[in-house]
Amino acid sequence: MTGRRSRPLLAPRVKTIVYGGTAAFLAAAFMIFPKDAYEASIRGLSMWWEVVFPSLLPFFILSELLIGFGVVTFIGVLLEPVMRPLFRVPGSGGFVWAVGMASGFPAGARMTARLRKDKKISRIQAERLVSFSNASNPVFILGAVAIGFFHDPRLGLLLAVCHYGGSFITGLAMRFYGSEKNNADSAGTFSLKQAFRLMHRERIKDTRPLGKILGDAVQSAVSTLLMIGGFIILFSVLNQLLTVIHVSQLFAVVLTIILSIFHIPNELSPALISGMFEITIGSRLASSTDGVPLFYQVMAVSFILGFNGFSVQAQVASILAETDIRFKPFFAARILHGITAAVLSAFLFGPLYINRTAEAVSVPGGGEEGTTLMTQLYGWIMQHGGAITFIFLALYLCLQISRLDFAQKKRCT
Fold first, then answer.
1. How far apart are CA 398 and CA 96, in angstroms?
2. CA angle 215-221-222, nearest 5°?
3. DSSP codes joined into one string, 64-132
4. pTM (2 decimals)?
5. At 106, is the secondary structure helix, strand, or coil?
6. Which among 173, 123, 185, 136 has a CA at the least distance from the CA of 320?
7. How far apart are CA 232 and CA 238, in angstroms?
């Protein structure tokens, strides 16, 4: 009896030892290598300040407003006949998927969690939806990766098709995950009148005045982005410390064996390891690895983008922790998405890059017009992102101060 009772206690104790030991080890590494930790934190902060915050903020604010005004419900009814048969999620999942692709991670997870909090989707449906709605935005793929890292805008279409195609295939695969009771997965019918009726009902249900809705949207968006910034800085430092203390080299030995099985150059192992922690660093390393054919570089970047990196996964885990949505299905989907995107890049490298490059050579200036808008948008964000971040952080601070003053006055009265 004593042995049986002690077994369940073993796992929590092991977790305590692992968590405590890891935290102590990292704290010691911080003190031994303060310069490397400082430089890595500055890089992470700069990326969040100049790119991540200004690019995600509009989508986060708009998503809150669209949910509050009932637009998501309206779109959900219209997309119900499509999303249910394909992915076994409600029609509102189509809106979440679109926003997730347009704004980038972790917007899809954030909107999924919001729908779950509002009880618009079940837990199983939320776990299906978050598995394929968390994607990189096209500005990052076409602007930062294709142009900034590879210096070749023609790679943008290939990377985007592989990434979003992998997301679609992952969604189709995750439709077989879990089961619903009471025929909850049956498709509805297209009804514009019903969609408008439910939208109006949703808006009436929210009794907040317009100014309160706007303030809450800004506050919610900024608080989420502050959390995201913390994770970006943390994993930037963690990745640097693991490199400095040569722990990454141990992972590289194991990864080299796996890469050799698939006849992929071993030189890509440092990039893949870095990409497993943070996609920006990993993608940049993969694109600049010397002596590796472009074909394998694109495969590595496609896997990194699909896997999302532990930094993004930690952000998603933090968002999902506020609900009953489990993280394990999301993690399994990330592995599937990464592998699927890499395989797609291998098959589509010829049709979407080699052939298009040959056609562009025969037509002077051809093939680059489609990426001009994304290039300009990425450049504009890089130029003005810091100012946008400063303005909205100041606005967020003012909102917090006004709410504290209001709460204090209410207590006094």
1. 30
2. 90
3. HHHHHTTHHHHHHHHHHHHHHHHHSS-THHHHHHHHHHHH-TTHHHHHHHHHHHTTSS-HHHHHHHHHH
4. 0.79
5. coil
6. 123
7. 10
Dihedral pair phi/psi, residue 341, rounded to 5°: -65, -40
Q: Is 246 left (phi over 0), alpha (psi -120 to 50) or beta?
A: left
Q: Where are the domains of the chain?
A: 31-412
DSSP 3-state of 293:
coil
User: Which spans in 278-326 are helix H?
Assistant: 279-287, 294-307, 309-320
Q: Where are the alpha helices (DSSP H) in 245-268?
A: 247-261
Summarised one tens digit per residue, pLDDT across range 281-315 is 888 888 888 888 899 999 999 999 999 888 889 88
**On the CB side of 379, how many CA atoms lie within 13 Å of its CA?**
7
The radius of gyration computed from the CA coordinates of the chain, to the nearest angstrom, equals 23
Residue 205, both tokens: 């249900």
Tell me the two tokens of residue 310: 């532990």
**Residue among 379, 254, 227 nearest 312 (CA):** 227
**pLDDT tens track for 166-216:** 999 999 999 898 776 554 555 556 567 777 777 777 778 777 787 788 888
Segment 120-128 mean pLDDT: 91
Alpha-carbon dihedral sign for residues 117, 123, 128, 134: positive
